[in-house]
Specification:
The protein is α+β, with helices and mostly antiparallel strands and 420 residues long. The protein has three domains: 95 residues, RNA polymerase II/Efflux pump adaptor protein, barrel-sandwich hybrid domain (OB fold (Dihydrolipoamide Acetyltransferase, E2P)), CATH 2.40.50; 69 residues, no CATH class; 220 residues, Chloramphenicol Acetyltransferase. 23% of the residues lie in helices and 26% in strands. It has a six-stranded mixed beta sheet with strand order 12-21-20-19-15-18, covered by helices on one side. It has a five-stranded antiparallel beta sheet with strand order 7-2-4-5-9. Strand 20 and strand 21 form a beta hairpin. Helix 6 packs across helix 7.
Length: 420
């Protein structure tokens, strides 16, 4: 029967190669026209390739993680007899079905591909051991689960009255079994697992390596009293009406934007190959967002022109779009400064990695309540450490410290956030 060679089409302007993220077919599979064949990732997007013909797959280009050139063979298909030789001349190429794009230099290329497309294949789990059951044997669910994990048939375990307890299972493992004793709290050891670094995780690894390799990082941390701004936030939320609920993030962004004009070197991008630093007038703020597929950095455009309610709305919209893989390409590129936070996960301080080619990244940390001297008295205050990492080729330590002190003043005196 005739064979049809499906070559990888041009799936993006200026793209010379693409990585195989996941296969939807294998050699020997029957496919129909428009059936998904593979997910391919470029620097810009993850694209689902579809079969232009029906038939049986006889050859595929490689394994997940392999990179192939545009125009190279992706899949070879033996055509159905009903199709005939006419299908060989068919020139239809698979159109990209859906694409979720990422910035060329994301902080940690927050998920560019759909979760299913970037998950490494894992060997199927072995069939679980199913212990024999008997109407005369009773045991709690915890004992039954432990016996199942250990591979013990409860029929073999002796127990007074037929009701098996952990102590009976312990005695069996110690004296009557070749499996060896294991405490009740211990479960079977998890087998080693080799996971190939491909797709999104490879992009993260490459970009983080490039950032640390090219940028001499330094991190400055300051403690900020957020008692007053948290009280203001509570008051605003209590009287917000139909407006979105405020987190601390929109108020921090207002403070960041109000201090940028005094410190233009913080809102910049460094083209180290050309030796040019561009100080941007507008603040296009990257917002590191954790998703199931990894870290994405959608961008709040012209953040300096938005009030706290508009910022809250935009933050929620972009976060939802990132987590649902519906974020647009233009929303994932062009950031001039990035903010990243672990939120309630905590930590005394962070040392965030710069989102290259930016020159700074800001990391607010967890808010904790601690006793603090206020004048001659001790009061309970809400405190937060604020971290900033900078590119020492562009930003000096004095500049970073001065910028954070300016932020501290606004945050600790929040009325200044709304003063012109």
């Amino acid at each position: 029967m005739p064979k049809f060679t499906f070559n990888l089409p041009d799936i993006g302007e200026g793209i010379a190669e693409a990585e195989i993220v996941a296969w939807h077919v294998q050699v020997g599979d029957k496919v129909t026209e428009d059936q998904p064949l593979a997910d391919m990732m470029t620097d810009k997007a993850t694209v689902e390739m579809e079969s232009p013909v029906s038939g049986v797959v006889t050859k595929i280009a490689g394994d997940a993680g392999d990179v192939i050139a545009i125009g190279a063979m992706l899949v070879e298909i033996e055509l159905d007899s009903a199709v005939g030789n006419a299908a060989v001349s068919k020139t239809k190429e698979a159109e990209p079905k859906s694409a979720v794009v990422q910035d060329e230099d994301p902080l940690m290329p927050e998920p560019v591909a759909m979760t299913e497309a970037i998950t490494s294949p894992v060997a199927p789990a072995a069939e679980p051991f199913v212990a024999s059951t008997s109407e005369k044997i009773t045991a709690s669910p915890a004992v039954r689960q432990r016996a199942k994990d250990l591979g013990v048939d409860l029929v073999d375990v002796k127990a007074a009255g037929g009701h098996i307890r952990h102590a009976d299972l312990d005695a069996f493992l110690t004296y009557g079994s070749k499996l060896g004793y294991r405490p009740a709290q211990m479960k079977a050891r998890r087998a080693d697992e080799a996971v190939k670094v491909i797709g999104m995780r490879r992009r993260i690894a490459d970009n983080m390596s490039a950032s640390k390799r090219h940028i001499p990082h330094f991190t400055y941390v300051e403690e900020i009293d957020v008692t007053a701004i948290e009280a203001m936030r509570a008051d605003l939320n209590a009287n917000r009406g139909a407006k979105p609920k405020l987190t601390l993030l929109p108020m921090l962004i207002v403070a960041i934007c109000k201090t940028i004009p005094q410190f233009p070197m913080m809102n910049a991008r460094f083209d180290d190959e050309a030796g040019v630093v561009t100080r941007h007038g507008a603040v296009h703020l990257g917002m590191a967002t954790q998703t199931d597929a990894g870290l994405m950095v959608p961008v709040i455009r012209d953040a300096q022109d938005l009030n706290i309610w508009q910022l809250a709305t935009e933050i929620a919209r972009l976060a939802d779009a990132a987590r649902s893989s519906s974020v647009k390409s233009e929303e994932l590129s062009g950031s001039t400064l990035t903010i990243t936070s672990l939120g309630p996960l905590g930590g005394i301080a962070t040392t965030p990695v710069i989102n290259r080619p930016e020159v700074a990244i800001i990391g607010p940390n967890k808010i904790v309540e601690r006793p603090m001297f206020v004048g001659d008295t001790i009061e309970a205050r809400k405190l937060m450490n604020l971290s900033i990492s900078c590119d020492h080729r562009v930003v000096d330590g004095w500049d970073a410290a001065s910028y954070v002190q300016a932020l501290k003043k606004l945050i600790e005196t929040p009325v200044l956030l709304f003063a012109d």
